[in-house]
Amino acid sequence: TKLRIGMIPADGVGREVLPAARAALEALGSSIPKTEFLDLDAGFEYFTKKGVALPEETVSAMKNDLDCALFGAVSSPSHRVVGYSSPIVALRKAMDLYSNIRPVKSVSKTPGERPSIDMVIVRENTECLYIKEETMSLGPNGKEARATRLITERASRRIGQMAFETALARGSSSLLTIVHKSNVLSVTDGLFRETVRGVPALPGVDGKYDAIKVEEQLVDSMVYRMFREPQVFDVAVAPNMYGDIISDAAAALVGSLGLVPSVNAGDTFVMGEPVHGSAPDIVGRGIANPLAAIRSAALMLVHLGYDGPAKKLDEAVDSVLRRGDVLTPDLGGSCTTDQVTAAVLKEL
Ligand code: NAI
Ligand code: MG
């Protein structure tokens, strides 16, 4: 058997960190099936050249020829560009990658890190405000901009199931925190909250989640508690936008966005992706932290069932962090992407 992996570096530092993930996967040698990498296009830069951000060939390769993929980052402009739409949002939708799973963990002694953090953010990945249904009209108060926020029972149920499964995999008495704002948005967030709460009572569950402790946290106080006592959290499940925001906050608690991995997972496909963006402030200098990308490759392997090799990658990353002498500038070091990658490969 072979492992066919799509590589979509896209924009900015995505192009600098994805080669590190590839080198780490290659260094696993025969502990995983023979890997075959397929380079695929997407991104804003591609859009400026070709007029599309997500070419059809990329989607069809993922649907037909690949077992999994790794995505770098996109540079989506903050102003509206006619014809452009974020390819990562589109890809999650096209492949029905309905969950974004983001483990945030302190390793100990990493500069800027708070100790004893070990949580997983399970972010809904297909709806909420990110359906991007926005309109502009003219009213008595001048321009009126509106956005539609979609929360469906189906998407809330399947992200809820993913969250309970994630919690169960971490031990039968894990804690699951449902993040919402249903004191204000009682219809949309109310549906999310109730549907996730209803997962343990679904047919076929047969009590397997009974020992999981479920609590709720309004999103604003969630951020507060994450800064005050981040070590209490275990698994947190949130609608798309809250999940996006609390994951960047959580990344700050472990020292850098350059450390936090994720996978976009559906029922039939998985795509690893560092949580960070294209980092325009450091692009081109060869100093992007490659560890989030390498950890994303590990997380992708876990979702494909290769726990052992994934653990090897994670341990190599952790020991580079613990040694602390080969770090990129975001962690206070002065090493390059290549030097940090070489240190990981040496550990492997
Ligand atoms: P960002 O995540 O790119 O950068 C935020 C900060 O973290 C910057 O100071 C950056 O230097 C630092 N950082 C990020 N990754 C790093 C790494 N690997 N090593 C060291 N430092 C790192 O977020 P920002 O600046 O708000 O957005 C830049 C662009 O990225 C925007 O166009 C945005 O749309 C896009 N973006 C794309 C995402 C994706 O592809 N999934 C996610 C977030 C943002
Ligand atoms: Mg984000």
From TrEMBL:
Organism, as annotated: Hydnum rufescens UP504
Cellular component terms (Gene Ontology): mitochondrion
GO process terms (BP): isocitrate metabolic process; lysine biosynthetic process; tricarboxylic acid cycle
Keywords: Magnesium
Protein name: Isopropylmalate dehydrogenase-like domain-containing protein
Domain annotation Isopropylmalate dehydrogenase-like: ranges: 4-344
Stated family: Belongs to the isocitrate and isopropylmalate dehydrogenases family.
Pfam families: Iso_dh (PF00180)
SUPFAM superfamilies (UniProt xref): Isocitrate/Isopropylmalate dehydrogenase-like
Keyword Magnesium: yes
InterPro entries per UniProt: IsoCit/isopropylmalate_DH_CS, IsoPropMal-DH-like_dom
PROSITE patterns in the cross-refs: IDH_IMDH (PS00470)
